[in-house]
Specification:
- The chain is about 50% helix and about 10% strand.
- It contains 14 helices and 8 strands.
- A hairpin with a 5-residue loop joins strand 7 and strand 8.
- The two termini are about 35 Å apart.
Length: about 400
Amino acid sequence: MRRSLGLLHRWFGLFTAVFLFIAGATGAVISWDHELDAALNPALYESVEGPQRPALDLADNVEAADPRAQVTYLPLAAPPGETLQVSVEPRVDSQTGQPYELAYNQLALNPVTGTEQGRRLWGDISLTRENLLPFLYKLHYSLELPLVGGYDVGSLFMGIVAIVWVLDAFISLMLSFPRASSWRKSFAFRWQRGGHALTFDLHRSGGVWLWLLVLIVAVTAVSMNLRSQVVAPIVSSLSSVTPNPFDTRTPLAPAQQVAPLITRRHVIELAQAEAARRGWTQPPGGLLYSPEYAVYGVGFFEPGDDHGDGGLGNPWLYFNASDGSAAGDEVPGTGSAGDIFLQAQFPLHSGRILGITGRVLMSLLGVAIAALSLTGLIIWWRKRRARAYAYHSGRRAVQTG
């Protein structure tokens, strides 16, 4: 049994090691993506303080300046001294039925003057200052693999890697405790021995000390990449789950997409009225529009708190773009056990559930995951080299004997 588990751990480890090294190293960095991106690209983040122009007016100006573009995410206010980070997607060309080609998908707008301070193609494969952090962010969860037939094969592949990682986490735990009488060795580090002994302890004992945190990251990685394919069906079999508008609708092909019949201003009014009815005190902080699903979303949070640091995130209300009717909501901390489990996946994976403390923890854990992957490869290579040496030594002994 132990030999079989050892073989599984070896092959699972070899399959995942390089990808987990990349995910761990990039995860340690992107825990601070906003701060690092702002340091590298101050023109995209820093603005002047003063009375801000209505964000809805600025969105209208963006689309008027380039009719090929439509605003798909709009912060409704910026923190003092910061820009509005506006996301856009190409409209569909009525002549071809395909999206226009845009060389950008994100704009940085001065909220006081309304002028554009910069633009970029977020997620482009590039190591320039403008694209370094977005590149690392996409590399983390999809390896920056291109879409195939419109499908994100990179996210799918990394989800499969995460499933193998979850299975290997349990196998490695069983291998780490071969005998009940020697359990203390599985927590110890032979610092003075150095060499192979220390490398082995860093891999085995380090994995034991961090096991629960690593398992949480692995499970949430599956949830982030394979939510609809794997996690939601499993959770739904154990608990009722409230579907959101994106779960219940089939994405529209570009030729099927039509312009929304409800304006952004009307959607904000509808959302504010519903929020007041529910007794919410936070202001509308962001407006989402999905042309693929013909749905608007309005998030409620203070300026700059898009990610909802601390807790399970921000509440959102959704409306049909065709008539403004309610299309659902996402209210953190409410719903069934299955709903709350799914709500917790991104906050747990990013560490944001604990605010700054959680982000520091996830950054350190990313380094540790990269180190566990690297030490695993070193141990495998040393054992492989030792086996090869023993094999050739045996052959020479036979030939000379």
